[in-house]
Specification:
332 residues; Serine Threonine Protein Phosphatase 5, Tetratricopeptide repeat; 16 helices
């Protein structure tokens, strides 16, 4: 559904055909609409440049301490929990479903990708200001910040929510995971560059830790989204794709298992086990033709390996007794 969504006021519009790109004009209209809409609730003070710390401090001062000094919105909104939750949910949906989901679209140019990151952060920043104790908003905002390497800010947002809702185990677990990531990645003001400079393994670990936090909190969709950055990254190492396979299997996402195995076989085309697992997944998913093609590659590579090393695993024998391949005529 995500490719069909476009911003439409306080809600989203479902287009009949997939929308290839969220254009600058679409972004401009949505940005201006919500900037003006925010005026009636909390004031129109959030910009692209407003740091997460300022929003966190504002949230604690306004909602927790009830200090309305300099407050430019409607005091009634500060007292209305239902309104806070409702409008945060609406803005969060746009930030997540329209902007965040398009950040790692394979066809997106660097310019479009940066546009989506910039607007996703703005939208989720507003959603967080509307309701800083909304777990859904906090998870999505923290995920975005962590995904682009700003772990210290992601942790700050999660800790702010924890102050409002100390008994929320999901938020507590998110804080613990982000604390671990922060120590491991040693982020700075430009933590994304720092994480990449420290090597792809550190970056991969940070993403897996974040996905684990989401999974433990029952946020499976957010866990899948967190892993997407590794699945689509051209610099991801082959062994990371195998870890993604295990992660996606735990999440019950067979489609993503297939995608991860496809990336692995592309990176390691001479490893027969990769082609064999890809074949089994494709055949089980009803993709018989492509599955048999992958199986043919796996068995050919396995046969060649056996010719060089008679002690190697014989995938042809394994395939003959594999229940996933039952009824499949094994390629010669």
């Amino acid at each position: 559904m995500y490719p069909h969504l476009t911003p439409y006021g306080i809600i989203m519009k479902i287009e009949r055909n997939p929308v290839p790109e969220i254009t600058e004009e679409m972004v401009r209209r949505d940005h201006e609409y919500w900037s003006q809409y925010s005026e009636r609730f909390i004031g129109n003070w959030i910009t692209y440049e407003t740091p997460a710390r300022e929003v966190c401090d504002w949230a604690l001062r306004t909602y927790l301490q009830r200090d309305l000094t300099g407050f430019k919105g409607d005091p009634a909104f500060v007292r209305d929990d239902n309104a806070q939750k409702a409008f945060s949910k609406l803005r969060n949906a746009i930030g997540k479903s329209i902007y965040s989901t398009r950040i790692n679209t394979p066809a997106a140019s660097p310019q479009v990708q940066q546009r989506m990151i910039k607007e996703a952060e703005f939208a989720l920043k507003q959603a967080f200001a509307f309701c800083p104790y909304s777990p859904e908003t906090v998870f999505n905002y923290s995920q975005l910040l962590a995904t682009i390497g700003r772990y210290d800010e992601a942790l700050m947002v999660a800790k702010t929510c924890e102050i409002f809702d100390a008994d929320n185990l999901g938020i507590r677990n998110l804080v613990e995971q982000l604390e671990g990531i922060q120590k491991g990645a040693a982020p700075t003001a430009n933590a994304q560059t720092k994480a990449r400079a420290s090597g792809p393994n550190a970056e991969a670990k940070a993403v897996f830790d974040l996905a684990s936090a989401y999974f433990s909190a029952g946020q499976s969709n957010q866990a899948v989204d967190a892993l997407e950055v590794l699945l689509t990254n051209s610099s991801t190492k082959p062994e990371v794709f195998l870890s993604l396979v295990d992660g996606y299997r735990q999440l019950g996402r067979v489609d993503k298992v297939e995608s991860a195995l496809a990336r692995y076989t592309s990176a390691e085309p001479t490893r027969p086990e990769g082609w064999y697992d890809l074949a089994a997944v494709r055949i089980a998913s009803g993709l018989k033709d492509s599955g048999v093609e992958s199986l043919q590659k796996a068995l050919a590579l396995s046969d060649a390996r056996l010719a060089q090393d008679p002690k190697a695993i014989d995938l042809r024998k394994q395939a003959a007794r594999d229940p996933r391949l039952k009824g499949i005529l094994l390629p010669k």
